[in-house]
Write a structure and sequence with these properties.
This protein is α+β, with helices and mostly antiparallel strands. It has 4 domains: 329 residues, no CATH class; 44 residues, no CATH class; 275 residues, Rossmann fold; 104 residues, Helicase, Ruva Protein, domain 3 (Orthogonal Bundle), CATH 1.10.8. The protein is built from 30 helices and 24 strands.
């Protein structure tokens, strides 16, 4: 300390010296422990000066479910993906399993009560979901990431190259059927928060605008309360006990399930694989030098053997093995499509206390031994190991193992696809048949939410539809319309206080096929679109091989515009046209073709089939409406289903401007597809409903009818949600070809039990099972087995008639 300083000056100098002493390599806070320099909003991270990284999140694919040939194809693509990287790019795969608090998880699944008369049903359905949840492992959330980094002078130089690499990586992953998306800066921070708070992964809260206001850094928002690295083999992150271990790869050959087996451990953990490509020429040169050195060792051993008087061809086993291995690798690098990589595999095992940690570590060691490897705790290197497990593509352990492309490819990052969406409109679809995890899917998140439920009689088609209807009604505000050719949905609709409309020659309930509203078309002229429906309606009535003739179409179109003009001049219910108005307008035309169409319509206007010549007299605005067309004859049923579809279109157009979704379920869908007119109208629904807020679902046992023409095949092409139950042999072949389903996958719809099959959700294919509890009121209402309900078709119809009488007063 300099002489002549005052006490205050001495104190100030002392503080400066203490601050300087602290500026060494030892971090003093949890924030200082986190080894990156700066996180940018676009997701680029400056780890150290001159080193920048980005992170992709990628989805899983069903590698475990794929057949042998499909697995080989995936492995080939995976090898090509690994070979894509050059030696200037460092990359890291991160697999994060985080366990959610059971109560918090149940809160996500449980239906929220709304204070209405349906809360008892919500409570029962929530209980069923809790029962299903208990069978799986949905308490573990698994996510997968790829982080890649390059060295660059500054961010301006790094960003363009990182973006180019990112595009190439995403394209390569897409070729394997793997969806990937880049993380922005906030998402990368959230990922590191989850790693540091595995006991509370949902608590992340951050906004860039908070930084200048608070004076905090991004590390303040992700750091745990503390890091403790005092122990030899254990570290602490907040209150959680951890151990970071190195997977020592000693086996000459490994199975392709090593990643899957580690990830199946039922606890929070991080599995990290650092991969550093080696320049091909440098790798070959190094191997040649190694072989030369081994040859020199062999000569020395042979000389020693001669001096000792034993056979010079007898060499140490380890030397021979190493020499053979080096020559084999050299041959692969020189003559085959193989690269050389330096690989480090780290596993962060966690526990709420030391006993739980010890149990999980023991399980991880057992898995390593199954693959002829060793799991070695990083003695006194726990901090370096933990920080190397962060998605920063920075390996501070640097305990590398040299592997070729083929050996590295055994760390297949793909296991089993899961589908568990937590959006408010996600509904229960069964349990994953491979993992027993619950499947929750929101069809509104699909590019095209249209759906099909396919299966043989007795496979559970109607039950699956009813279960979804229950879930949708209780959990969302969506409207639901059902076309019910077999009177199977009446009990369900009555339990939800919906409107059952019996469309029958003997019914006093009527729906008007001429109904229209001002929003009926997205164009300026709703009458033009309504005319298309009426032409289809008349074509079914007139019949014949060629249907309506051009002149007949012209006069019908002319009459349609005439009878609707009065309504749109004064749109009151009394002015809504009925079928009789069209009949009268046709009779007024001079063309003989108009008389022919009018004559065909006469039985539906004045005759015994005049049930469609009335104005609508039932509540078609109820949240759930079921059109029971069971008692219509064969010809009338086609007309009934076509009219129901038009009523649905009316409802969709009204709901569109109310920002409300309309769900439409069509049972026995194949009946609509057998006639050209109804099939064409169905295809239009499948094409147009999406942008109008409609979600149609066809339920059928006849796959061949779906593919009977190129036009009807559009229904398949425009359905991103397909629920496949047990399928007949011929249909299985068709489905496998049309939907790109492998032999192993299609086996799940071969002699499948009731409620089991395959779910196709966008690009995801998941085998499912649904063992719905039978001791519930919901099951009794939904099941169609007479032995379980005691209700035959006549009893159902009797209840419907009583309901009709009650509604009509």
């Amino acid at each position: 300390m300099p002489e002549g300083l005052t006490f205050a000056e001495r104190k100030k100098v002392k503080r400066i010296l203490e601050r300087v002493d602290r500026k060494d390599s030892v971090p003093r806070t949890a924030q200082e422990t986190i080894p990156f320099s700066r996180m940018f909003r676009d997701g680029v991270c400056r780890v150290t000066d001159g080193y920048y990284t980005k992170t992709l999140r990628f989805d899983d694919i069903n590698y475990s479910l794929a057949g042998e040939e499909d697995q080989k194809a995936i492995l080939r693509d995976w090898c090509a993906f690994l070979n894509f990287f050059d030696s200037s790019v460092e990359f890291q795969f991160s697999f994060l399993d985080t366990s959610m608090d059971r109560k918090a998880y149940e809160k996500r699944v449980r239906l929220k009560e709304r204070g209405d008369v349906f809360d008892p049903l919500r409570k029962e359905y929530s209980g069923i979901l809790m029962h299903q949840l208990a069978q799986g492992n949905n308490g573990i959330t698994r996510t997968k990431y790829l982080t890649f980094g390059i060295h660059a002078k500054d961010a301006n130089q790094a960003v363009p190259r990182l973006s180019h690499i990112q595009m190439d990586l995403m394209n390569n992953l897409r070729q394997m059927g793997v969806r990937a998306e880049p993380l922005d800066g906030a998402e990368r921070l959230q990922l590191m928060y989850r790693m540091f708070h595995m006991d509370d992964p949902e608590g992340f809260s951050f906004d860039w605008k908070w930084l200048p206001e608070s004076g905090l850094s991004v590390k303040d928002f992700i750091a745990p309360a503390s890091f403790t690295f005092g122990s030899r083999r254990i570290c602490e992150i907040g209150d959680m006990e951890c151990q970071v271990s190195l997977l020592q790869i000693t086996a000459p050959h490994m199975r392709d399930t090593v990643v899957k087996d580690f990830l199946d451990i039922q606890s929070s953990q991080i599995l990290t694989m650092h991969v550093q490509p080696v320049d091909q020429a440098a790798a070959i040169e190094k191997l040649k030098k190694t072989i030369t050195s081994l040859d020199a060792s062999k000569i020395q051993e042979q000389k020693r053997a001669v001096r000792s008087g034993y056979d010079m061809d007898i060499l140490p086993t380890s030397l021979v093995s190493t020499d053979n291995g080096a020559k084999f690798v050299l041959e692969q690098l020189e003559s085959q499509n193989e690269r050389f990589f330096l690989v480090t595999v780290l596993i962060v095992t966690t526990g709420k206390d030391k006993e739980e940690l010890a149990t999980n570590v023991l399980q991880a060691k057992s898995i390593a031994q199954q693959h002829n490897c060793s799991l070695l705790p990083l003695d006194y290197l726990q901090e370096d190991g933990l920080m190397s497990s962060l998605p920063l593509a920075m390996n501070r352990v640097e305990n590398w193992r040299g592997l070729t492309t083929g050996a590295t490819s055994m760390f297949v990052p793909f296991t089993t696809q899961e589908l568990f969406q937590t959006s408010p409109d996600a509904v229960y679809c069964g349990l994953n048949a491979l993992s027993a995890n619950m499947i929750l899917a929101d069809r509104k998140l699909l590019k095209n939410p249209n759906g099909l439920i396919l299966g043989t009689p007795g496979s559970g088609k109607s039950f699956a539809a009813k279960r979804e209807i229950y879930n949708v009604f209780l959990a969302t505000d969506d409207d639901i319309i059902i076309c019910d050719p077999e009177a199977e949905y009446i009990s369900l609709v009555n339990s939800l206080k919906g409107q059952v409309i019996r469309v029958s020659p003997t019914s006093s309930q009527y729906i008007n096929p001429m109904d229209i509203n001002g929003n009926y078309s997205e164009e300026d002229d709703p009458i033009a679109l309504k005319a298309d429906f009426i032409l289809s309606f008349c074509e079914l009535i007139v019949g014949g091989r060629e249907g309506l003739q051009p002149v007949e179409r012209t006069v019908i179109d002319r009459c349609v515009h005439r009878i609707y003009s009065r309504y749109f001049e004064n749109p009151i219910p009394e002015n809504m046209p009925v079928l009789g108005d069209l009949y009268e307008a046709l009779l007024e035309q001079e063309e003989k073709e108009a008389k022919r169409v009018a004559t065909a319509l006469e039985i539906y206007v004045k005759g015994s089939l005049n049930l469609f010549n009335h104005r609508t007299n039932v509540d078609i605005t109820n949240r759930i409406v079921c059109y029971d067309i069971r008692d219509l004859g064969k010809q009338m049923r086609k007309l009934g289903m076509l009219i129901v579809q038009d009523q649905v279109w009316n409802r969709v157009t009204v709901n569109r401007y109310r920002k409300k979704t309309t769900r439409y379920y069509i049972d026995e869908f194949h009946l609509l597809l057998r006639e050209q007119q109804t099939a064409a109208y169905s295809v239009e629904i499948w094409k147009r409903f999406r942008k109008w807020g409609g979600i149609p679902t066809g339920i059928t046992q006849n796959v061949k009818d779906l593919l009977s023409s190129q036009e009807v095949e559009n229904i398949f092409d425009n359905s991103d949600f397909i629920y496949l139950l047990n399928q007949a042999p011929g249909d299985r072949v068709i489905l496998a070809k049309e939907l790109g389903i492998s032999k192993n996958q299609i086996s799940y719809v071969k002699q499948a039990g009731e409620g089991s099959g395959l779910l196709l959700y966008g690009g995801v294919i998941i085998p499912f099972k649904d063992e719905f509890p039978k001791d519930t009121e919901m099951y009794r209402i939904m099941t169609t087995k007479l032995s379980e309900t005691g209700n035959g078709p006549e009893e159902v119809t009797d209840r419907a008639e009583k309901q009709e009488e009650k509604q009509n007063g």
